[in-house]
Amino acid sequence: MPFMRFLAVILIVVFLFVALVFSYQNRDQSAILTLGSVRTDPLPVFIIILGAFLLGVIFTSIIGIIEGMKVRVTNSRLKRKIKKLQSEVDALRNLPLTGPTDDVRSPSPRLSDEDSAL
Prior knowledge:
Blueprint: H1 2-25, E1 30-31, E2 34-35, E3 38-39, E4 43-44, H2 45-93, H3 113-117
Antiparallel strand pairs: 1-4, 2-3
């Protein structure tokens, strides 16, 4: 697990470096956002792009959390089912082994002379 944390830190540092270079190179460009009748003041382009990226990360994180909750609920339901089935198997294993009594047994078939010739 330490390797995964190290890899995550490296990826975060690389992302921050790329974002810093991107914002430095696009510091002079600006744009106005319009959503319906709402208009913003001129914003630097890098803020708009990084904001859209951040909104995408938040949106996909929410979807991932919801999917993870579904998986956990299904997992707990299946664990309860396994526990129930395991207790049923244990109960069946603990049943006494009693065979049929001599009176109840069907008589063994008698071989005729024709059968013994085969």
